[in-house]
From TrEMBL:
Belongs to the HMG-CoA lyase family. The lineage of its organism: Bacteria, Pseudomonadati, Pseudomonadota, Gammaproteobacteria, Oceanospirillales. Coiled coil: none annotated. Keywords: Lyase, Metal-binding. GO terms for molecular function: lyase activity. This is Hydroxymethylglutaryl-CoA lyase. SUPFAM superfamilies: Aldolase. The keyword Protein biosynthesis does not apply.
Length: 308
């Protein structure tokens, strides 16, 4: 039984900001390859308006065509009730709702304050709960700028705890704490993770880090030391938020898996298989990726002695 769960977000969070549209067949092939590596969940796409994110305009076709492997949850981002209805029609396993802990970032990213986002959450939860019996769809909420806002600076811990409590009261089942612009540091991460786990011990929390300032892996380690066992990560380190100035890619999936496996912490992921999929990314998106292990190889890689 793996000690950790890794949620792969590259098909959504990574591809949404690529300059060029990745063909639908290539997206499907990427997700199918990822689903064979032992990942717990894959965030396949986002059911947003094609005008807002044209790179993901093929959401329904992608989700209804990919292979559905037992044990691999397919989650999608839904911004509103209409998006939730479209996602539910595609028989997803999980919907991911998004709001910001910061009023400024919420207005910039979603055109909504946190209070308005929570009102929309209530309508989405009601829509999901109206599904026929036997069709249980997990409801997760991602809380952006948990560790800091690029417009406002520090986000008080008390505000984060209050928003999590209000999300859960609406019927949200899991919560992702997101370092949207890579502002977090390991000490801060450990404090907040310990606080949320102490206050909401029955809630599955996922940590979502960006590597904007090179602290993604250190922050993941701090979260794990605090008791977190679920992490978002993106193949090759792809990703970033178009409404968060300076934000770069997510913590890299293969780098994260490599770190934990080297420590003896089981992720359930076949790292060699994951690296093979990662090696295909530059050809898919037309540029290099920031991941490190794909370039340097695993730590147990050995080289021949130089010739004398």
């Amino acid at each position: 039984m793996p000690s950790l769960q890794i949620n792969e977000v590259a098909p959504r969070d990574g591809l949404q900001i690529e300059a060029e549209f990745v063909p639908t067949a290539d997206k499907i092939g990427l997700i199918d390859a990822l689903s064979a590596t032992g990942l717990a969940r894959i965030e396949a796409t986002s059911f947003v308006s094609p005008k807002a994110i044209p790179q993901l305009r093929d959401a329904a076709e992608v989700v209804t065509t990919i292979q559905r492997r037992p044990g691999v949850g397919i989650t999608v981002l839904v911004p509103n009730v209409k998006g939730a209805e479209r996602a539910l029609a595609c028989h997803v396993d999980e919907v991911n709702l998004v709001m910001s802990a910061s009023e400024s970032h919420g207005l910039a990213n979603l055109r909504m304050t946190p209070t308005q986002s929570l009102e929309q959450f209530a309508a989405i939860v009601e829509t999901v709960r109206a599904q026929p019996q036997g069709r249980e769809v997990f409801i997760n909420a991602s809380l952006s700028t948990t560790f800091g806002c690029p417009f406002e600076g520090e986000v008080p811990e008390a505000r984060v705890l209050d928003l999590v409590e209000r999300q859960l009261a609406l019927g949200v089942q899991g919560v992702s704490l997101c370092d949207t612009t890579g502002m977090a540091n390991p000490a801060q991460v450990r404090r907040l993770c310990e606080a949320v786990l102490a206050r909401f011990p029955e809630t599955p929390f996922t940590l979502h880090f960006h590597n904007t300032r090179g602290m993604g892996l250190a922050n993941a380690l701090a979260a794990w030391q605090a008791g977190i066992t679920r992490f978002d990560a993106s193949l090759g380190g792809l990703g970033g938020c178009p409404y968060a100035p300076g934000a770069t890619g997510n913590v890299c999936s293969e780098d994260l898996v490599h770190m934990f496996e080297a420590m003896g912490v089981s992720t359930g992921v076949d790292l060699d298989a994951l690296l093979k999929v990662s090696a295909s990314l530059p050809g898919l998106i037309g540029h290099d990726t920031p991941g490190q292990v794909a370039k340097a190889g695993k730590a147990d890689r050995r080289y021949p002695m130089p010739a004398r």
